[in-house]
Amino acid sequence: MDFELYEHLNEIPGIDAGEQALFLHAKDHHSKSIDYRILTGDKRALRAICNYEQPDAFEFLRKKIACLESSMMQMIALCGFDHVNQKVSSARQQVVESKYDQVLRSAFGIGRTQEHCIECLQNYTNDIRWLL
Predict the structure, then answer these.
(1) 20 Cβ partners below 8 Å, 6+ apart?
(2) What per-residue confidence (pLDDT) applies to 28?
(3) Same domain membership, residue 73 and residue 60
(4) pLDDT for res 80
(5) Sign for the pseudo-dihedral over CA of 50, 53, 54, 56
(6) What confidence score (pLDDT) does residue 27 get?
(7) 79 forms bridges with which residues in the sheet?
(8) Residues 9, 6, 64, CA angle at the centre, nearest 5°?
């Protein structure tokens, strides 16, 4: 265990035990030169890291984090906006509105353009861009 990283993690409010475990595991992989990625929906923890006074302690996470918004942008790049928009829009009809993700509601739908979608997804990740 990287006790120095553990101390940093304990100094940051907003990072729960589950995220701590993920970040410690990632650091272990980084130390052993094992490739890794972290998929998380906990943007509160990611914001806390980006706002931490010693961000260099988390350099090992840069470009290794994926979240819903970054994943959606990658899908658009791979499959095209029209295809992804159609799939997300049809899925929305099958999900109770209160359970449907706010960013998906804002970015995708009938009449949405790729420019609007990308801008929306980027706006949701502006404060964690350092990690993405």
Answers:
(1) 6, 9
(2) 96
(3) no
(4) 98
(5) positive
(6) 96
(7) none
(8) 65
